[in-house]
Design a protein that fits this description.
By secondary structure, this protein is mainly α. The protein contains four helices and no strands. It has a domain of 64 residues. The longest helix has 31 residues.
């Protein structure tokens, strides 16, 4: 894959002792760490809101019979997305480091 970079970035890269590949690698690592932090915050929010772990809340949702609660189910979907995404980015980071 061919990468193009704005020529105005080269003096900045040089002043920071980076080449293009080093800058891209650093940027991606920072973005992965940022995503991990975001998903941890989201998980922490729901853990405090429901005073449960994700797995406990998932069991609760799966065992609800006819008394569906739309807010709880929406929260479950958001929490599940955050939980799965956190694990994805953690696994990607392990592959890189």
């Amino acid at each position: 894959m061919q990468t193009t970079i704005n020529n105005n970035f080269y003096p900045i890269l040089k002043s920071l002792n980076y080449n293009v590949n080093g800058a891209v690698n650093e940027f991606l690592l920072l973005k992965i760490h940022n995503k991990i932090s975001e998903f941890k915050s989201e998980i922490n929010y729901y853990s405090h809101k429901y005073n449960k772990t994700f797995k406990n809340f998932e069991n609760y949702i799966n065992n609800i019979s006819n008394s569906e609660n739309i807010e709880e189910y929406d929260d479950y979907l958001s929490w599940k997305f955050s939980f799965d995404s956190l694990n994805y980015y953690k696994n990607q980071l392990k592959k890189i480091i």
